[in-house]
């Protein structure tokens, strides 16, 4: 809902997926990208802006992607594999993302804002919500399988820091962050952990299978375990926050 309102009132900002610089020795250089290329599709999915391309590349590290590129009047097919690297955002926060080694030099005149109708805003909101859900679940799964680092888990201190940083960009960016946090927290609340809403759903499911509810003692033990898990997560997130703030 928040994303839909965001697109309705602020529109959809975008910049052409143009290549302004190719880093020497990067995945983009190996793939054959050239300055002036415009990426129009990745694996058959249409690319409307540079942020669309970044979004796909950032989560597909180590996977070979097929790029459809407009080079002058010609259409060129390239294949490249994003590399997993630690990059820093404009505020100095480190993130591990898939990168090609392509730079887009954006000026104020390059950014266009497309006004969308309510139906389109709703569809864009659904797509944005699904992206947040997909990436949240992928990250959690990656932590348990060792593909992702747990030090990216943040708590209230990190949220406060990032909120302050994002607020300097503008209201639209702050609303976007609020939507991401709302979806992520809501999704975590649905996990089958006693004490959370997902835990209650788990108890209801067990009751439906058994034909009778769990005993008060069993429910109490479950809630105690759930409380312990939640407290452990909060302590771990706060510990990460302190380390992050100390290093920044």
Automatic annotation (TrEMBL):
<dbReference type="GO" id="GO:0016020">
    <property type="term" value="C:membrane"/>
</dbReference>
<keyword id="KW-0812">Transmembrane</keyword>
<dbReference type="GO" id="GO:0004222">
    <property type="term" value="F:metalloendopeptidase activity"/>
</dbReference>
<keyword id="KW-0378">Hydrolase</keyword>
<keyword id="KW-0472">Membrane</keyword>
<dbReference type="GO" id="GO:0006508">
    <property type="term" value="P:proteolysis"/>
</dbReference>
<dbReference type="InterPro" id="IPR008915">
    <property type="entry name" value="Peptidase_M50"/>
</dbReference>
<feature type="transmembrane region" description="Helical">
    <location>
        <begin position="221"/>
        <end position="239"/>
    </location>
</feature>
<dbReference type="InterPro" id="IPR001478">
    <property type="entry name" value="PDZ"/>
</dbReference>
<dbReference type="InterPro" id="IPR004387">
    <property type="entry name" value="Pept_M50_Zn"/>
</dbReference>
<feature type="transmembrane region" description="Helical">
    <location>
        <begin position="166"/>
        <end position="185"/>
    </location>
</feature>
<dbReference type="Pfam" id="PF02163">
    <property type="entry name" value="Peptidase_M50"/>
</dbReference>
<protein>
    <submittedName>
        <fullName>Metalloprotease MmpA</fullName>
        <ecNumber>3.4.24.-</ecNumber>
    </submittedName>
</protein>
<dbReference type="InterPro" id="IPR036034">
    <property type="entry name" value="PDZ_sf"/>
</dbReference>
<feature type="domain" description="PDZ">
    <location>
        <begin position="5"/>
        <end position="73"/>
    </location>
</feature>
<keyword id="KW-0645">Protease</keyword>
<keyword id="KW-1133">Transmembrane helix</keyword>
<keyword id="KW-0862">Zinc</keyword>
<keyword id="KW-0482">Metalloprotease</keyword>
């Amino acid at each position: 809902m928040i994303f839909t309102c965001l697109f309705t009132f602020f529109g959809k900002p975008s910049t052409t997926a143009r290549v302004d610089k190719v880093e020497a020795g990067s995945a983009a250089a190996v793939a054959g990208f050239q300055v002036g290329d415009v990426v129009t599709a990745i694996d058959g999915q249409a690319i409307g802006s540079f942020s669309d391309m970044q979004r796909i590349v950032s989560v597909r590290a180590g996977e070979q992607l097929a790029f459809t590129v407009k080079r002058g009047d010609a259409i060129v097919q390239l294949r490249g594999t994003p590399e997993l690297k630690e990059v820093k955002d404009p505020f100095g926060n480190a993130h591990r993302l898939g990168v090609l080694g392509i730079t887009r030099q954006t000026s104020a005149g390059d950014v266009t804002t497309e006004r969308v109708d309510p139906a389109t805003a709703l569809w864009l909101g659904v797509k944005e919500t699904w992206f947040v859900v997909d990436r949240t679940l992928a990250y959690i799964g990656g932590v348990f399988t060792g593909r992702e680092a747990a030090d990216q888990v943040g708590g209230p201190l990190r949220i406060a820091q990032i909120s302050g940083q994002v607020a300097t960009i503008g209201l639209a960016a702050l609303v976007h962050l609020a939507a991401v946090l709302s979806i992520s927290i809501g999704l975590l609340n649905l996990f089958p952990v006693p004490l959370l809403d997902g835990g209650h759903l788990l108890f209801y499911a067990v009751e439906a299978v058994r034909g009778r509810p769990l005993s008060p003692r069993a429910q109490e033990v479950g809630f105690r375990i759930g409380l312990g898990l939640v407290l452990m997560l909060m302590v771990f997130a706060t510990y990460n926050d302190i380390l992050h703030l100390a290093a920044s």
